[in-house]
Amino acid sequence: VTNKNNPQSISIGSYGNVGYTHQGWFTEDQRYFIVGDEIDELNFGFNTRTIVFDVSDLDNPTFFFDYYGNTPAIDHNGYVVGNIFYMANYNAGLRALDLSDIDNQNISEVGFFDTIPGTNSAGFGGTWNVYPFFASGNIVISGEEGFFLVHNPILGIEDVAKGDFAMYPNPAKNQLTISSMDEVISHVEIYNVLGQAILNKTFSNNFSETLDISNLNSGLYLVKINNITTKKLIVN
Length: 236
Prior knowledge:
Layout: E1 21-26, E2 32-37, H1 40-44, E3 49-54, E4 62-68, E5 78-81, E6 84-88, E7 94-98, E8 108-113, E9 127-131, E10 139-143, E11 146-150, E12 165-168, E13 175-180, E14 185-191, E15 197-206, E16 208-212, E17 219-225, E18 229-235
Antiparallel strand pairs: 1-2, 2-3, 3-4, 5-6, 6-7, 7-8, 9-10, 10-11, 12-13, 13-16, 14-15, 14-17, 17-18
């Protein structure tokens, strides 16, 4: 699309059991393209299918693998934020899929919000679209049942300055240091974008502590210090 009056086809990729190729989204490193086929569940009878292409070579995009969800519901629009793929899954509502191990052909469901809990059938009711891009961390769901705003109590909060703590470097990669001039550090928790506690450390009341965060995936985290201060952390 360099010349918008004359867009050029670069290449074509294909996959099996095609129903209606509806929508797709890149992972944040743009190596993979995640595709939703809107009527394959209806036509072929399998559970929600998410199709992954390897597009690291744009001249030769290749089918990488299929991920099958927990219900027979039809998938619609989906979007990637960090390592999470947020999918509008019609009768199964909003589904959050963890992409952190996609290189090894592993995707796992880590959360959901079902707008019509009574059915997960392959139909066109329920959730039509989701919007996960607000800085607050809130997610909008729209569909046949109306408008929903999903709030995660861990996400989207501003730094609370009840304690005067410094946290550096930020963004960080392997290590994170937290220090204070006037308050000892006794407890630190780190939460991922789904509000799950992934690190929980208790310390011996020092004024400075360094944490090993080398096992954390790239993305946004929240660091809770002494249960009184919460700071946003970006891991590269």
